[in-house]
Amino acid sequence: MVIKNGNKGKDLERLTLGELIREYLENKEGYDKVIPKTHEPLLNLSNRYRISSAHPKEERITKQIATSIINLTFDFLLE
């Protein structure tokens, strides 16, 4: 299934994970019926640590943080 943002007509299947997260965070009102507002903090966290893993910095990501984000992501995907 392809979901399109009616305002921009973007085909979301072609976007990278970072682009998808940015699309949502910049256009939240267009996705009200797709992504519950309760998951916005998770998307912010995921984006922060996604950037850290794709563009390594000196900041260390602990096993506890990584596990917590993975668990929250499963909750998001299963909701």
Backbone CA Rg: 14 Å
On the 0 to 100 scale, the average pLDDT is 77
Q: List low-confidence stretches.
A: none
Give the biggest beta sheet: none
- Percent in strands: under 5%
Number of beta-strand segments: 0
Report the structural category: mainly alpha
> What is the count of structural domains?
1
Number of helices: 3
Roughly what percent helix? 40-55%
Shape: globular
The rounded distance between the terminal residues' Cα atoms is 18 Å
SSE topology string: HHH
Give the secondary structure arrangement, pairings included.
Elements: H1 17-26, H2 40-54, H3 63-78
Concise summary:
The chain has 79 residues and is an all-alpha fold. It contains three helices and no strands. Helix 1 runs antiparallel to helix 2 (40-54) and helix 2 crosses helix 3 (63-78).
Overview of the structural elements:
- This protein has 79 residues and is an all-alpha fold.
- Helices cover 52% and strands 0% of the residues.
- It has three helices and no strands.
- Helix 1 runs antiparallel to helix 2 and helix 2 crosses helix 3 (63-78).
